[in-house]
Amino acid sequence: MVPGGERAADNGGVRSRRPVGEITRGTTGHNRLRRSDRWIVSTYGPLLRSADRPLIVDLGYGASHITTLELFLRIRRLRPDAEVVGIEIDPARVAAARPYEVPGLSFRLGGFELPVDRPPLLVRAFNVLRQYGEAQAWHYWDLLRSRLALGGVIVEGTCSEVGHRAVWAGLDASGPRTLTLSARFDAFERPSDLAERLPKTLIHRNVPGEPIHAFLRDFDHAWAVSAPLAPHGVRQRWIAAVEMLASTWPVPRHPRLGGRSRWRLGEVTVPWQAVAPAPETA
Hints:
Layout: H1 34-50, E1 55-59, H2 66-78, E2 83-88, H3 91-97, E3 105-109, E4 122-126, H4 134-146, E5 153-159, E6 165-172, E7 175-183, H5 200-203, H6 211-225, H7 234-245, H8 260-263, E8 267-271, H9 272-275
Parallel strand pairs: 1-2, 1-4, 2-3, 4-5
Antiparallel strand pairs: 5-6, 6-7, 7-8
Helix pairs in contact: 1-2, 6-7
């Protein structure tokens, strides 16, 4: 879903250059990113509503335009004047998407350099960093952060092919701020099953001694202890497990980030600093 070798078009007098990054498989599908979009609308709704001329970038949308179109429709419910740009490295994918352009929705060739005419307020980048090493992933996070508008944010993550398991990081200009785990209730046996979807900057840190490993271990423990609630439904068991987790981990209870309204969706968010790589290995 992201960059390779063609030269990007000139944008507003900016010198043309090769897209930054490498092409991905391009796997996508209807509602694959619904979970992250739902979180974006809830968490960043105030930002999107208050910004002047909000520009949203969907980086690496894949072989189909559909998830970019879905993001556009969801954002437009908040801001009818918002502009969404889908960016892809593969010229054929861009050409295939362009017939679906409408006012406020466009597609263009590019990569992590974000070839847009003004800094974006929000960048959604899903399933674009798994093929890179950890150091490269940190580098591309930094590059994307440098392109943001004032107050802008990034949602970068990975999901399963049908979107039933997903993990994403929320970043701003200062760095990563949050980590969110989200799953359909019939898509896992225990919370640590979502470890395979951790951001590249964490996935290899899921080992003893690292905070993310301790978090998933404690989540699994809370899940096991909450098993008696299973007859009342997996949702009730999840809520109880997150409640228990919140007694030892800084799980936000703010209506937009935490609390039962978010947990009941199969979601939990924690501050990035709670699960960041241990200092001695960062």
